[in-house]
Amino acid sequence: MAAPTLATQRLILRAHTQYDFAACCALWADPELTRFIGGRPSTPEEVWQRLLRYAGMWSLIGYGYFLATDRQTGLPVGEFGLADFHRDISPPLGDRPEAGWIMLPGHHGKGLAHEAMSAVLDWADATMPRTVCMIDPANAPSLRLAAKLGYVEYDRTTYKDNPTILHARSAL
């Protein structure tokens, strides 16, 4: 399945392309953004593998991550979407799609992450009755966003030796 293009008032959410590599390297190189996602900036090699993984998810499982760009400037804002990473975590996430998001710091506090993830979840609600997400307990902005999106905590555990909170959301 090819990724759809989603449009919101301020954003275009689309599939990544090879031409997004430099922008994604800049996004994933930011230590502020990655401190709760892997704990360190990603190398260009890791970013390239991520882009390939995104394309593979769309073709194999019919969902994945979108690159969100500003409608007026066309510049990247962040990445938002759903995935199945087959995480080795207890309790297991099962076959429920896992929501995730990352956004460049210059766009924080403007409601763009909520706008983007609302579009993703509106699209997903037709075929995915339940989604999950996992968030570091120290990541207050993501915890607030998850709550606004309708995610509810259902467990606390560890993942790769780091504390994490598991949340679930049923389609609205």
Protein architecture, described:
By secondary structure, the chain is α+β, with helices and mostly antiparallel strands. The chain has a single domain (6-129), classed as Gcn5-related N-acetyltransferase (GNAT) (Aminopeptidase), CATH 3.40.630.30. 30% of the residues lie in helices and 28% in strands. It contains five helices and eight strands. It has helices at 21-28, 31-34, 44-61, 112-124, 140-148, and strands at 6-7, 11-14, 65-70, 76-83, 98-103, 130-135, 152-159, 162-170. Strands 1-2-3-4-5 form a five-stranded antiparallel sheet, with helices on both faces. Strands 6-8-7 form a three-stranded antiparallel sheet, with helices on one face. The mean pLDDT is 95.
Contiguous uncertain segments of 5+ residues: none
pLDDT averaged residue by residue = 95
Structural class: alpha+beta
Please tell me the total number of domains. 1
Q: What is the H/E string?
A: EEHHHEEEHEHEE
Q: Kindly report the spatial arrangement of strands forming the biggest sheet.
A: 1-2-3-4-5
**Count of DSSP-assigned helices:** 5
CATH architecture: 3-Layer(aba) Sandwich
* Strand residue percentage: 25-35%
